[in-house]
Design goal:
By secondary structure, the chain is α+β, with helices and mostly antiparallel strands. It has 2 domains: 130 residues, LysM domain (Membrane-bound Lytic Murein Transglycosylase D, Chain A, Roll), CATH 3.10.350; 132 residues, Glucose Permease (Domain IIA) (Distorted Sandwich), CATH 2.70.70.10. Helix content is 21%, strand content 28%. It contains 6 helices and 19 strands. Strands 7, 10, 12, 13, 14, 16, 18 and 19 form an 8-stranded antiparallel beta sheet that branches. The longest helix is centred in the first third of the chain and has 21 residues. The protein starts with a helix and ends in a 7-residue tail after the last strand. The protein binds zinc ion. The site of zinc ion has 5 residues, from loops.
Length: 285
Amino acid sequence: MSKELLLILLALVLLPLAVASVLNAPPMEPPQGDLGGPVGISPAQVFATYRVRPGDTLASISRRYGVPVEYLQASNGIADPKRLRAGTVILLPREGVVHVVKEGQTLGDIAESYGVSELEIIAANDLNGLPLPGDKLLIPHPAEIPWLEALELGWRPDSLFVWPLKGRLTSLFGPRVHPIFGTPDFHTGIDFAVPEGTPVHAAAAGRVSFAGERGGYGLLVVVEHPGGFSTYYAHLSRILAEEGQFVEQGQVIALSGNTGLSTGPHLHFEIRRHGKPVDPLSWLP
Ligand SMILES: [Zn+2]
């Protein structure tokens, strides 16, 4: 390789880095009321913080510092953007969403949850090792933000689960006549009438313990959650998660369908506790 070619290659590598460091420069106007230190430090990541003043709204902070409202909301776990309490210290990430790494969550899992590549996360955080639980990572300009999905699906601080999707309920939990066999039957979940291909979301964060075909369930995803809970998503047309993968609450894990013992397109959803089906309506928000 000639010397000139090497120099050109070097320039091609260094130029984007130089541009990126300019883009990542702190805002011109320094955040007011900064506590004087970072709220969280991951291997090479320090985020600007801001102490909310009376009269601030997420929209006004967003305009002042050029951070999209969605990034502010997701990075700080803000459920209701209208109820912002003065004195609260929030993170101000301009280039994406701040994610706190959970126990057992790999870089690959996080990349899947946000629809970005592992390499983008590594580059954005200057990672030179595996992130540890509790580390704060910048997810650069995510394609999906599970936290916002969870809010759309009814997230509440006092509820473990969100709805797997929004749709008309056509069959409830409990004794019924079987829709295909016409015999007495116990319905172990609830059914939502939705067109085939409707996105199905994880009702809570957890690990996918089954993803595949299972008898009458057709294409099925099972997610294990803390506290002995598991959730079942059945009759799917397409599975978008893998066994062993850690999924976030609200993350799209499948598309609804009409597979297995099913009389029409719908989602069958179960919540089980220690393996025993419970009435999802008493656990959903
Ligand atoms: Zn059902």
